[in-house]
Amino acid sequence: MKNLILLFFVCFITNGFSQKISNEQIASQISQYKNDVRGPYKDIRWFCTDGSIRQPKDPCPDNIGPGVQHARYKDDVVALAKNNQIYLGQILAYTDKDEFWDAKNNHSRLKQYQLDKYLRAVDNGWINEKGQFYRGAIQSEDEEAWGIDFYKWLLANDANIEKNYFLIRQSLKDIPHSGDDNLSQLIRSQSKVISDEFLPFMDLRVKIHSQPDFKDISKVKEFKEKFSSKLSKSQTDKVDELIKTMTKFYKPIDIKTLANKTSLFKNTVVAEKINSYILSNSSETQASALIPETAQLIIDIRESLLEVKSPLGRLQLLDISLKLEEIIFKMSPEWEPDNLQGMLTKICYLGMATAGSGYIEMSEWDAISLKSPFPDENNMTLDALTHVLENGRSLVEWSSSMVKANYQNIVDVYTNFEPKTYGFIDDKIRGSVALYLGESVGKLGDFIALESSLTNKVLDIPNQSAFRGLNPGYAFGELVVVDGSPDDIEVDSDKIYIFQRPPADLKPIAGIATVSEGNMVSHVQLLARNLGIPNAALSDANLKSLKKYNSQNVFYAVSNKGNIIIKLEKDMTETERLLFTKKERNEEKIEVPVENILLNETNILNLRSVDASDSGKLCGPKAANLGQLKKMFPEQVVEGLVIPFGIFREHMNLPMPNQTVSYWTFLNTMFKEAEGMRSQGIAEAEVENYQLKELETLRNAIKEMTLNPKFVAQLEKDFTSILGADLGNIPVFLRSDTNMEDLKDFTGAGLNLTLFNVLDKNKIIDGIKDVWASPYTERSFKWRQKYLLNPENVFPSILVIPSVDVDYSGVLITKGISNGNEDDLTVAFSRGAGGAVDGQSAETYLIKIDGGTRFLAPAREQYYNSLPISGGTEKKLATFETSVLNQQNINEIRELAKTIRETLPKETHSDYKGAYDVELGFKNNKLWLFQIRPFVENKKALSSDYLETITPKIDKNKVISLSEKL
């Protein structure tokens, strides 16, 4: 009996420590820790070198070696770490270095340590609100000694620095190792705490967060004097602490003291550069002279870091780099160029400092033409200036995306139980030189907007030059500003959405703007472009400025040149109101052609036996066009099977379970009933709800359908003969391929289901039914209803092809999207399979037909899809120090596009003269082709009379003097 009881307790404890803890429970635990005088800690002990643990008043004796004294975690803190990998109140001296670096989990523990530091700063100690003075819990000298030992271990490995330069450098601001404090973050957190308690401080807080400078000290002092009678004793003390911190931070840095940090790399080239910098600038006070010299040294240090072999010498170099960034951060507001030449020079060196500080990769800095401050030119054309502006905007966007790429995942985890975490990324960006780079680029944007008459008119918000149009169109509706994740937002087709990033499965909406545009050739972007939905990019600050207009009705337009208008309903002109007068929309819709469809073909087809002429007849355009590509590029297209429309239609004639009719009759009855409801004047929303409920019933029934045994037998036979292995022995893609895709005026990109890398035989068979059901999902149906006259006549075929575990994949558009040039190419690639198509932040190029390339954006996704031979997908971790595409890949893509343009129209006997949208990938530098379709743009949006009226005529060759006053 005793053994049974013991077994019960062992099982109880084991299960208790293995069950994941809910976000609600974690939030409750945090609340408890805040009110506990020991916070997340249980007690204090001595930890001796021999592994023994002793009472706090019984230190480790000399004969068993020295020890360290610190707290132990509460049992539920230990359980949270074990079950959820959430590490609260980490004590460094208590932590294994390798476990803290946590490379296998994308450095989660280190990032959580940084989050913890931030939350304690902005929330009065956070989990240590009452326990922050728990004496002996953490010994600062032990933490600092651990930090030095940690960096000695970490920086000994060159690969760590090459792959994680940004993260390592950022961690130095939080991990104690030299006695330095992260004062700039402390200023922001102290000002936030004051404004949260005393609302009149909010304006000053906004100033300190967005445009900080040393003059803020006097403004805070004036504020304290003005509100002295209204501030409590506690609030007054906090204002005094802020003044003290600001005074310490803005105390001039003695440049001569940098020499103290060069002891471990004295006889190196970089040491000579540092000593030369000290000699030349120790008495320099002019920001316009000191910032260029400092920026150059920051980038020199980054480029020289691996030449210093001592890990602690590398640590000294990184500490110098941080001090140099601090100099630029403090002095940037003092550099106020009065002419265009000065502004271009400032942007150049702030960009250089941004690269040296790790906010972009060196390959990205080398690819962008901001490196010259244009000292020998007296004039520039408006076109050349605009190119500089675009590069400057890119640097700002890439810097923000570097912070997000490194921290967004763990911030999302913490935000679920601690909402204050959401400000962490914004705080990181505002504490960087990129803040002032963005401000300077904004001023250049304002200047160029006036010179080109390309001025945005976005309500009354500041920094409007950060807006840029991605594709033209206009919309009217409620403005919805989403500051968090968009994935759980239920969108409405009549509303205009402002997102941090575009959701992967976007349902129909009226208009969209995003901080992170993903990439210009993702399914979301292509659908928006196809349907004439106005689409723009904006900055983080722009999004926050728009939040006060959330839920208000606005007019939103993006012109053909990318300038943007957003205005309240009451400010709309009569012309703008007339754009939305109710009218019969059928003439704007198109009809799915069904007159040539061949539903009597009920045999599985070999991909080699179909070509472009079969599109819309036997199968959809994916299979037809891939079959065409197989004929043209036999070595670069996989083998495949095609399940034609006729097999789907044959199965739809089967009796539907729990109904008295077939699947097909059920579907058509639903559409007839819906038309009857409309004729009776029933509201469209009610009609749509009826249809969606019926479609859900149909969809679930299709998924449970029993497939025809004859079809299954043929599938097994043809799978083996065509793909060379038995069904269930090699993983395949199942791609939905409907007759509604790639119509003349409608792309349908990404609306229906693709199943990735399916291996198991039963999962393939079930997957066929899932793909057949996917055109009846809410998202797919709503897009069809918006555009098609006969949505009931949608037939899915299925393309079955073996998986290729590509190293990287993406999209080629045989047109320059960013410049409108029909001869150029646009390419977006991400690591692994499917990322660029799904809207990941992808490496993007404009490939010039004459042989040049222009780098438009880097890849900024830390996780990518790998396709293992065992089926399914695996998430792998990426770093950004090397580009995705190499020059050989780019040359092959250029040749491929040339061949497609010249050969495809002849091979298909087509008079199509537009651009193509091609999905492709590389495995071991071999190019594989997966899809080709026409690139469909919304001609109505591009040619709209109204959009033409708001599109200024720009003289790109206009010459502007660089001595022009700003």
Automatic annotation (TrEMBL):
Catalytic activity: pyruvate + ATP + H2O = phosphoenolpyruvate + AMP + phosphate + 2 H(+)
Cofactor(s) demanded: Mg(2+)
Pyruvate phosphate dikinase AMP/ATP-binding domain segment(s): 654-943
KW Kinase (keyword) present: yes
Pathway: Carbohydrate biosynthesis; gluconeogenesis
Catalytic class of the enzyme: transferase
EC number, as in UniProt: 2.7.9.2
Record-linked Gene3D superfamilies: ATP-grasp fold, A domain (3.30.1490.20), ATP-grasp fold, B domain (3.30.470.20)
Organism superkingdom: Bacteria
A Pfam short name: PPDK_N
GO MF annotation terms: ATP binding; metal ion binding; pyruvate, water dikinase activity
Keywords attached to this entry: ATP-binding, Kinase, Magnesium, Metal-binding, Nucleotide-binding, Pyruvate, Transferase
Function recorded in the entry: Catalyzes the phosphorylation of pyruvate to phosphoenolpyruvate.
Stated family: Belongs to the PEP-utilizing enzyme family.
Name of this protein: Phosphoenolpyruvate synthase
